[in-house]
Amino acid sequence: MAIESLDSYKKYVKERLDSFRTIFAKASIGEYSEDVAIPEDNEEFAELATGIQVMIEVIRERIGELENEIADRKIIEERIRHQALHDPLTGLPNRKLLEERLAEVFQNAFRDDQKMAVVYFDLDRFKQINDVYGHQVGDMLLKEFAGRVDEVLPPGSLFARLGGDEFLVVLHKVKSQTDVSNILKRVVTALESPMSIESKTLFLSTSMGVAMFPRDGRELSTLVANSDVALLQAKHAGRNHFRFYRAMMNREASSRMQVVQELRHAVASEQMEIYYQPVVDFSTNRIMNAEALLRWRHPEQGLIEAHDFIPLAYDHGIMRMLGESTLRGVLQSQRTWQRQGVSRIRVAVNLSTREFTDRTFMEKLRSMLDEFEISPTLLEFEIVESLAMENIDLAKDRFKAFHKLGITIAIDDFGMGYSSLGYLKDLSVDKLKIDQSFVRRSLKSKEDRAIIQTIVALGQNLNLKVVGEGVETKEQLNLLRELGCSGVQGFRVARPMSGDMLARWVASSEPLV
Ligand code: C2E
Ligand code: CA
Ligand code: CA
């Protein structure tokens, strides 16, 4: 174009620039279209315009590519996040995600004053299944387990795999403990039918421990820890059970009175069961005897162990009644075993101070033995060291009378507090049971090993059997054998079990330790 004046040139440039601005503006929001006028009256501008147009096209293309890349990366990131937060085998949330979600659930529960249950799961004997059938079968079982449980949990429950064979479920907005019981009963039922995996038929069960929010803890870590405690109790109670965390002892006074009522009712309504824990003799590798341990099958709380309710029974005058029904139960078991042709098992019964000091005890004992027609040689009484010591004259008489009948005597929890051992030679005792605390510390502490050695030496001198109690590991078991104990009792050998189970257990021809 001819330049007529500076002003007209300025005006021309301004117009062109405006037109370019429009093109840029439209292009930048993706609306560029052919109908935007490109000045053609000037070759230079036209060339520039075409150049810019090409550039815009290139840029748009690049933007499109980048957008796709970002979308892809988001998908990948999402996948990575999912993998980092889920268990690859079962697809359930893992511990990390659980913690994230729980923080939220907790806040809501706090805010809305809701009840919640944290349930800790641990598969029974899963390690054995893995060892016997291999990891592949183990993995398939875990998957099947997760699927079955998931199906019976209420929608919205948080179900996570913590690792190995441990799972955790959070049930929110539950109304009561009964609510939770009902859900967990469904879990137990869901696992009842066998799982067929690689043409094998396998049974899987789980033990569960429950802690309730807010009753058993107001913090996540406390609740998880308490559900774990309850889980251990469930395991001790013989697996395939659930247990609520609530040490009977920790209840408030008002609710404790309720437990006492329940306990009284329980004794009368046959909710009490006797479990038997074998003691194995090192010299024969066979059973030496079994110890009777009381269990309370609570209609809601499952199986409760003795240490959770016996102290309460003592404090509220129920112990004597309980002791009597235990003795009856043991004699009843003996009779059943005899009828079934099970080999004779001597059963040790724990005697409390209530029975020990009861003047009519000998009489009751004799009449019960007659009633059930059981030889007294199939009985042993366990008396804790302190009880014998504090009633030394009575102990002398009683022990003599027991012996006369053929009942043997063991001093329980031996080594705990009495330095004077002279009393032992005055009493007719047959056995010393080393207190569990020495066994527990035996591998770590030289002093505790020395105490065990001393008890063993004492036993040898006085011709008494010495049994190590609470043996949980192979190392403890070997140590007690090396130190010269006559036998062992503990989870490592066998957990307390029902009378029927014990009959099957002793029938096994395998060496027992
Ligand atoms: P105890 O006589 O010392 O009984 C042994 C306790 O240790 C039992 O607890 C048993 O389950 C547990 N135990 C056995 N092996 C192991 C192990 O390897 N590790 C650990 N950590 N524990 C193990 P349980 O049944 O709860 O009984 C607690 C106490 O209650 C008994 O202590 C006994 O004093 C008393 N008790 C139990 N049943 C009766 C009974 O029928 N009458 C009386 N009077 N007392 C009983
Ligand atoms: Ca005992
Ligand atoms: Ca004991």
Explain how this protein is built.
- The chain has 513 residues and is α/β, with parallel strands linked by helices.
- The protein is built from 19 helices and 16 strands.
- An eight-stranded mixed barrel has the order 8-9-11-12-13-14-15-16, surrounded by five helices. Strands 2-3-1-6-7 form a five-stranded mixed beta sheet, with helices on both faces.
- Strand 6, helix 7 and strand 7 form a beta-alpha-beta unit.
- Helix 1 packs parallel to helix 2, helix 4 crosses helix 5 and helix 10 runs parallel beside helix 12.
- The longest helix has 43 residues.
- The chain is elongated and about 140 Å long.
Summarize the structure.
The chain contains 19 helices and 16 strands. The chain is α/β, with parallel strands linked by helices and 513 residues long.
Helix content: 40-55%
Q: What spatial order of strands do you see in the largest sheet?
A: 8-9-11-12-13-14-15-16
Low-confidence stretches: none
Instruction: List the ions, cofactors and other small molecules found in this model.
Output: ligand C2E, calcium ion
Structural class: alpha/beta
Q: Quick one: overall form? A: elongated
Percent in strands: 15-25%
Q: Give the biggest sheet.
A: 8 strands, mixed, barrel
Please provide the count of β strands. 16
Instruction: Please give the radius of gyration in angstroms.
Output: 37 Å
- pLDDT averaged over residues: 87
Total helix count?
19
Span of the ends, CA to CA: 110 Å
